[in-house]
Amino acid sequence: MSRPPSPVPSPTDQSPEARLQRGKLAYQRGDYAAAVLTLRPLLYPQTLLAQEDQLILAHKLLALSYFFEHDEPGAEQEFNLLLSLRPDFALDQLVDPLKAVAFLDEIRRRNEQRLEEIRRQQEEEQRQKAEAEALQKRAEQLAQKQAKRVYYERVVHRKLSPLQFVPFGVPQLADGRIAAGTIFLIGEALTGAASAGTWLTVRLRYPDNTFPAREYQAAQALTGTYLGTGSAFWVLVLAGLVDALWHARTSIEIRELAEPPKELAPTPPEASSAPAITPALSLAF
């Protein structure tokens, strides 16, 4: 399967990457002089290419362009720079001209001792880098193991008073919640009064729990009224109690513990170095 053609850089694009592409196209067209003029400023007097692969490609194309321009000293200089960067660099016999491959092999043969020394230096640098990374990793692991675990206890104090259990909006009014207290006060007073009044009316009119047939509907209405308003009264009382307990004043105390709480199972010290907070609840009357 054929490879897709490389994108043609715009002539106005002066980035190092675009200029490298133009130098590569000039080399592929056989315009070696243009390739030299395009590639050399990317490498001298300073390198403009940031990526190593781009740098290797630029030196390779420049060396081959020098070689086909019959500038063997220039080609040898570029190949030597390539071998200094990558001692095992080699041309592809299936793609690159065999004359250039032989030229590079001769340069490698003459500089085998120097290249071997470069290989050893690079291997030593890689070994030192790997050792430094391993030491850094071990140091970080040791620091995590030695990190002190700090435990905190969070204690919530809920202050309750007898007023919290009084109906008619008393707890709400005592806490300064006037609107809620007024609603509970009026609602409980009206429903309680209605229920008590209708109950008393039924008892007075029908003391023996019997009533004439003509007053059947009136008796049913009175009974339903005192039962319904009574239920509403107790619903409001219960709602007021729940509201009072929910809005009871609380204070939170956080204190450091000398040792881990008993309810916590032991965990490896490296599992976490962050402070732990354990909740606790207490009621103060």
Write a concise keyword list for the protein shown above.
59% helix; 3-stranded mixed beta sheet; 285 residues
Pattern of helices and strands: HHHHHHEHHHEE
Strand order of the largest sheet: 2-1-3
- Percent helix, as a range, is 55-70%
Amino- and carboxy-terminal Cα gap: 86 Å
Q: Segments where pLDDT lies below 50 for 5+ residues?
A: 270-274, 276-285
What is the approximate shape? elongated
**Oligomer category:** single chain
What is the number of helices? 9
Strand content: 5-15%
Question: How many distinct beta strands?
Answer: 3
SS class: mainly alpha
Radius of gyration, whole Å: 46 Å
> What average pLDDT do the residues reach?
81
Can you walk through the features of this model?
- The longest helix is centred in the middle third of the chain and has 35 residues, at 112-146.
- It is built from 9 helices and 3 strands.
- The two termini are 86 Å apart.
- With 285 residues, it is mainly alpha-helical.
- Helix 1 (16-28) packs parallel to helix 3.
- It has a 3-stranded mixed beta sheet with strand order 2-1-3, with no helix packed on it.
- The chain is elongated, with a radius of gyration of 46 Å.
